[in-house]
Amino acid sequence: MLNVPVEELREEVGGLCMDVFLQMLFKDNFIHADLHPGNIHFQRRRVGTDSGHFLRSELVILDAGLAVQMSAQDRRNFTDVFYALTTNDGRRAAQLMVERTPGDRSLVRDEAGFVAEVGSLVSEVCGKGFALGKVRLGECFGQLLSLACEHRVKLETSFVTVATSIIVLEGVGRQLSPIVDLAGAARPMLAEAIANRWSG
Asked: 54 by DSSP, 3-state: which?
C-alpha cells in the first residue's frame, strides 16, 4: 500500500465508500446511520489465486448500533424521490414528497410554493451534477428538509435518517475524493431497483 500514490488511494477509498453506501441503500436495505470516519476502516489484503497474488481493497464498516431498514413502501418512496433528484427534477421530487407524505396532506402549507421552491433549489444547488467537488449535498438535503418543515410536509423517519447519512457521507467523500459522482454512481442501482419493482 505504501507504493500507491496518496491521491490514487484517496480516489479509490472515496469511490469504495460511495459504492458500499449505495449497495447498503439500494440492494441490502440496511443503512448505517453513523458513518463518520471513525466507523470506516480501509484495508488492502494480499489474495492468492491460481494465477498469482493481488491486493484486494476492502472497506470495513464498524459500529452498526445505529442502523435503519426501510419498509417496502418507504424504500419505494425514497428511491423515487432520489431518482427525481439525481435527474435534476426537483419539482417531481417535491410532488412525490407531498403525495406520499405519511402525515395529513391537508395540513401541507402552500403545496404549490413547496413544489416551486424545491424545483428552484434542485436546479440551483444540484443542477451542476452530484460530483462532490461541484455541489454540496449537505446543503441540498439540509435545505430540502428545512423546506419540508416550513411547508409542513411530514417525512418518513427513514427518509430523514438516510438524508442525514448522505450528508455525513458527503463530508467523508469530499475529504477523500471530490470528483466522486454520487448521481452517476447511484443511477444504475436506482434504475435496477425501479426495474425490479416492475418485474417483481
From this structure: strand
Residues near 21 by Cβ (< 8 Å), separated by ≥ 6? Answer: 32, 35, 165, 169
pTM, two decimal places: 0.78
For residue range 35-89, what is the model confidence (pLDDT) as tens digits? 778 888 888 887 777 777 777 788 888 888 888 888 889 888 988 998 888 788 9
Cβ contacts of residue 115 below 8 Å, gap of 6+?
A: 91, 94, 95, 98
47 - beta bridge partners?
A: 54
* Tens of pLDDT, residues 75-86: 889 889 988 887
Which grid cell is 87?
435527474
10 Å Cβ neighbour count for 67?
Answer: 15
Spell out the domain ranges in the chain: 1-33+69-200
Cell triple for 162: 438516510
Report the chain's terminal Cα–Cα distance, integer Å.
43
Consecutive H or E run containing 78 = helix 72-86
**Residue that is written with C-alpha cell 479509490 in the block:** 12
Long-range CB contacts (within 8 A, 24+) of 104-111? 104/154, 107/152, 107/154, 108/151, 108/152, 108/153, 109/150, 109/151, 109/152, 110/151, 111/151
